[in-house]
Amino acid sequence: MKLQNKVAIITGAGRNIGADIARLFAAEGAKVVVADMDLGRGEAIASEIRSKGGEALAAVADISSVENVQAMVRKVVDTWGRIDILVNNAAISDNKTIFDITKEEWDKTLSVSLTGPFVVSKYVAEQMVKQGQGGRIVNIASTSGHMGRESAIAYTSAKAGVLNLTRSMAIQLAPHNIRVNSVSPNRIGSPVGKEEFDPTRKVENLKGRPGLPMEVATVVLFLVSDDAEFVIGQDLKVDAGFSIRM
User: Fold this and answer.
1) Would residue 12 count as lying in a domain?
2) 123 part of the active site
3) What is the pLDDT of residues 146-182, one digit of tens each?
4) Is the pLDDT of residue 38 over 80?
5) Which of 21, 54, 76, 155 is catalytic?
6) Per the domain annotation, does 2 fall within a domain?
7) Please, what's the b/e burial string for 202-234 (b: 16 or more CB within 10 A of its CB; e: otherwise)?
8) Helix axes 66-80, 116-131, angle to 10 degrees
């Protein structure tokens, strides 16, 4: 098992990519914190993991709130004594143009999709430094952060920010043996913030099909495992070749 006895927090883990990351980490021996704004959704994934013999804890996570994040970190440390891995997966999208979006919608999208990863990373990294044994952080970015789009102006801006947040965090946390990387999916599973998955959803990648959440989860597992010990500050695109045409 690649993550035996490691403690991992995954935000937005109640569905889609986050849920499969939680499932895979647990199968690889990690104690998993299923963090989600919807406690019922998070508890459903945590219960599923426990039913298969894994260890999982559901936590309500408003990642834009410093107080909420600090409380979550304390809960995890009180329960399992440490934090080894963080995956910043939670995000929302606006799906609007500059003419349609309001300032409030802009602020909300950035608060969850960019400020959220910053806030959670800040307090988790402080705990990792206190432990003195390093750690691993993966930010879930998006191909939308690498290009402009006809819609989702706040989301594209936030995800571009996540990419450079990753690079700066990687530089600043490397002296503490905390490795930081990111992953950029493209049309994986259900759209951001939605439940339904349409397998016929139009894609422009070299596979000719939408990606599956587990196909992102396996790449995230690589990045947090010892296999990627020499990979720092990188963005791995999980997009079936979509980005090579950009």
Assistant:
1) yes
2) no
3) 999 999 999 999 999 999 999 999 999 999 999 999 9
4) yes
5) 155
6) no
7) ebebeeeebbbbbbbbebbbbbbeeebeeebbe
8) 30
For 218-233, the DSSP string reads HHHHHHHSGGGTT--S
User: Model confidence at 189, in pLDDT bands (50, 70, 90)?
Assistant: confident
**Average model confidence (pLDDT) for the chain?**
95
Cα–Cα separations (whole angstroms), residue 34 to 5, 14, 18, 25, 237 = 16, 7, 8, 11, 24
pLDDT, mean of residues 119-145: 98
Domain span including residue 241: 7-245
CATH value at residue 46: 3.40.50.720
pTM of the predicted structure, to 2 decimals = 0.95
For strand 178-185 and strand 235-238, is the pairing parallel, antiparallel, or unpaired?
parallel
